[in-house]
Amino acid sequence: MEDAGKLLGATGRLQYIIEGSIPRSQCSDDCLPGNRKVPASSIHKCCYDCVPCSEGEISNVTGSENCMKCTDHEWPNENKTQCNGKLVEYLPFTNDNISLFLITSTVFLCILTSAILAIFILYENTPVVRANNKNLSFVLLVSILLSFLCVFLFLGHPVDITCLLRQTTFGILFTIAVSSVLAKTITVFLAFKATKPGSAWMKWVGTKLPNLIVFICSSGQVVICIVWLTTSPPFQEMDAHSFHTKIIVQCNEGSVIGFYSVLGYMGILAAVSFMLAFFVRKLPDSFNEAKYIAFSMLVFCSVWIAMIPAYLSTKGKYMVAVEIFAILTSSAGLLVCIFFPKCYILFFHPELNTKKHLLDSRNK
Fold first, then answer.
1. Which of 32, 53, 214, 278 could serve as 67's disulfide partner, Cβ 3.0–4.6 Å?
2. Measuring CA to CA, which residue among 274, 343, 347, 270 is closest to residue 307?
């Protein structure tokens, strides 16, 4: 038994020595998943190096000679061993701090605008409300309120119908608001000119000319929007190339010329309103809105001029958030600059809200 054990032990050691001395048929270890083989700088064909797969590619087997490319909607995991679906990004209604801030601001501004509208309806027959055309004030308040509400078109998962309505809705509503401001400025100018005896401006005083201005200016924007929508309308777009790890669901504006024509048309109206209001801001009228209109148009133009480079330099939900912020800020500028001074008189200086005071101020 002892001799047999020694014999077996010697045989095992011999077998181990023989097996260990057998040469391998390759001089490199197998490449792990996430890597691929490349020929090594050697005279032996069996020798190779292992290199990681390129961006957007994976290998999920050991010893792979080639990597597989992930689809446009997928991206490799950290080890490059499997393709995972990319994250889908858009500005949602919920579960996002930016959306929460924008929705809260929108709701607050809508409530504030509705309250001012209710106040103006309640005091509609008082001189401070009737001054400079109360109907234009109501049109302006309603257009500002609807401008705030159109923010909700920019939130949520974009679809073709919301892409069609986004820019055109806010463009038309803003044009109505700016046209109303322009008409109010012209009303201030005409009211002052018509006070002089025998003035030829008397025939222009009334509600017809301001209403015509609003209609013509708004119609111009409507025509631009119709041409835009019929030639190259906006549509939903899945951008899978701007970022490696996420897909941006966004609205493609279709025609860049159409989009900037809408903004440019509003800008021209705002610039004309600002210049006219600036020239008539010192007319002797206690309810002269021109100085407030001039400041509101300055705020309006500044916001949109600053918005354009910020809009072009961002992508995804942040680009949408920039436009929403511009809509809220510019609309709030109109609301605060034009209507807060009148509300201040209504509540804190009712003695100024008289026809006698209005006439005395105009005759100075």
1. 53
2. 270
